[in-house]
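pasting Transcription elongation factor GreA for the record, 156 residues
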Amino acid sequence: MQDQDSEYFSKEGLDKLKTELESLKKKKRKEIADRLEFAKSLGDLSENAEYSEAKEAQMLNESKIAEFEDILRRAVVVKQTAQKETVDIGSQIVIEDEKGPRLTLTIVGSQEANPKDQKISNESPLGHALLGHKKGETVKSFTPAGEKTYRILDII
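structre below
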């Protein structure tokens, strides 16, 4: 069962987010602190573009850190199971629509979605429509081109 406040991740995706957060906290904070020190050494802060840019970078970095920490508090790691009867987060599926080629997609959490890698979010219209369905079933999804019907050919 999905919780609307939860953020779903594969173990690898969660590890990647944690690594990026650590980089923001340690490396990026240090770089910005160094920029601020340099800008302060230039004198008058009221007309110091370098100082203003560094402060803005600091604000954006701290905002990103807070966002990532919030996501991590709500993170749920999706465990791969041997059960492949219904589509769930973490499922890799083969689908086709009435006019298009077969697609092999993986249903992932919104933070890991990457259409170029055939990873679609469980919150996307197609991802949401596929959840809970079985091999052989058809689902309807709304796309920018209108409503499409997809048939689930396989759950890998």
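The chain has a mean pLDDT of 90.
The CA atoms of residues 110 and 123 lie 7 Å apart.
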